[in-house]
Amino acid sequence: MSKDSNARQAYTIVLFIFFTTSLVESLVVSHLNAFLPVYLHQDLAVSQKNVPIFLALSTAIEFVLGLPLVPFWGVWADKFSRKWVIARSAYVEALVFFMIGASHSVVMFVISLLFVGFQLGNTGVMLSAIRDVAPAKRTGFAIALFGLASPLGFALGPLMGSFLVEHTGLGLHGLFMLDGVLSAGTGVLVSALFREVRPKAPPQGRTIDLALRAVSRVFTSPRIRKLFIIFGLVILGRQMVSPFIPLLVIHLHPMRYGQLSAIGLVTGTSALAGAAISPLAGALGDRIGFRRVLFVSVLVMAASFFLMAVSQSVLALAALSLFFSAANSINFAMIFSMLATTLSDEERTPALNLVYVPLYISGIIGPILAGAIARTDLALVFIAAGVMALIGAWVVYLTRTRTVVMTPEPRA
């Protein structure tokens, strides 16, 4: 039976729904990531000395609460309902942003972040649904197009958000409330327009057993462990730096007027560059090897971190952020390509379902480590991140000849 016969809805409609959902999610999250230092200091009266530690804790808490639920979202979606697992993410996201927008104290802001862990876990489910409804000859195109939504949202978000706050009088509280409305809108979009698509063979058994089985498959496989360690080390530097780039912009542009626009310039345009270069890197990886491209990309990221530490202007920082964002996008693309080509069929599915575990662990360790360093000197955060990136490049180099590419057997 072909995949098309099981499709309950035109794949173009499903792609539109999920592209919009992912775009909005990235856009609203980018507002929080980019403008959080300003929000903490100007709106919640956190002293400049304490902003770094609040940045670190607010970033890490999202991953601390989300990590235990990672194995469950895919199981719940396949066992019960993909539609409501995806819609759940949008509605919880709306609640989080409504609470952040209504926060006038650090306590209420922290309480709002406690719900973020229940917001995560929708991307893999959307990808599974797209694979099930798209015609076989259009699956790659559909997934590639869906993949553009997130970087596009992260690029547009800071630029649009800074304009709205600085030129319309909306304010950051109003911006976050608007983000809540947009998130709720995507929840309604999924609930009303997406028709449930069930997997051909829904998992049987208790949810906890299915989740633990997936975790066991991942961490008992030497190949998966090796790739996950590489992934974690490569992105640790990124997780250290990302929350503190807006803080570095503020340091270089201390005047309040135009501050958000400067943050938008640095974080928004760099994200767009990353989205543009990733497909080119994929083609290069096919020709010379994913690990070689990854090695060079991590070195470029390390160099960008070291140079950020001594940046003297917003424009210089924006230029370096272009290199960082491009390298970061290439790193993700190469890691995913290595997972897809170096694992057996039995290893690949659980590995892809749990692929963000290294991201979550690095998302806990990186910001906390960076927050402690930033209280001494902000520039040291970027130097430390550069060192971490070099360690990651060293591990990639050491494992360059030890991975065997798995070629799929021809189908009958």
From TrEMBL:
<feature type="transmembrane region" description="Helical">
    <location>
        <begin position="316"/>
        <end position="339"/>
    </location>
</feature>
<dbReference type="GO" id="GO:0022857">
    <property type="term" value="F:transmembrane transporter activity"/>
</dbReference>
<keyword id="KW-1133">Transmembrane helix</keyword>
<feature type="transmembrane region" description="Helical">
    <location>
        <begin position="379"/>
        <end position="398"/>
    </location>
</feature>
<keyword id="KW-0812">Transmembrane</keyword>
<feature type="transmembrane region" description="Helical">
    <location>
        <begin position="262"/>
        <end position="281"/>
    </location>
</feature>
<dbReference type="InterPro" id="IPR011701">
    <property type="entry name" value="MFS"/>
</dbReference>
<feature type="transmembrane region" description="Helical">
    <location>
        <begin position="85"/>
        <end position="102"/>
    </location>
</feature>
<feature type="transmembrane region" description="Helical">
    <location>
        <begin position="141"/>
        <end position="164"/>
    </location>
</feature>
<feature type="transmembrane region" description="Helical">
    <location>
        <begin position="170"/>
        <end position="194"/>
    </location>
</feature>
<dbReference type="Pfam" id="PF07690">
    <property type="entry name" value="MFS_1"/>
</dbReference>
<feature type="transmembrane region" description="Helical">
    <location>
        <begin position="351"/>
        <end position="373"/>
    </location>
</feature>
<dbReference type="InterPro" id="IPR036259">
    <property type="entry name" value="MFS_trans_sf"/>
</dbReference>
<keyword id="KW-0813">Transport</keyword>
<feature type="transmembrane region" description="Helical">
    <location>
        <begin position="227"/>
        <end position="250"/>
    </location>
</feature>
<feature type="domain" description="Major facilitator superfamily (MFS) profile">
    <location>
        <begin position="14"/>
        <end position="404"/>
    </location>
</feature>
<feature type="transmembrane region" description="Helical">
    <location>
        <begin position="52"/>
        <end position="73"/>
    </location>
</feature>
<feature type="transmembrane region" description="Helical">
    <location>
        <begin position="108"/>
        <end position="129"/>
    </location>
</feature>
<feature type="transmembrane region" description="Helical">
    <location>
        <begin position="12"/>
        <end position="32"/>
    </location>
</feature>
<keyword id="KW-0472">Membrane</keyword>
<dbReference type="GO" id="GO:0005886">
    <property type="term" value="C:plasma membrane"/>
</dbReference>
<dbReference type="InterPro" id="IPR052528">
    <property type="entry name" value="Sugar_transport-like"/>
</dbReference>
<dbReference type="InterPro" id="IPR020846">
    <property type="entry name" value="MFS_dom"/>
</dbReference>
<protein>
    <recommendedName>
        <fullName>Major facilitator superfamily (MFS) profile domain-containing protein</fullName>
    </recommendedName>
</protein>
<feature type="transmembrane region" description="Helical">
    <location>
        <begin position="293"/>
        <end position="310"/>
    </location>
</feature>
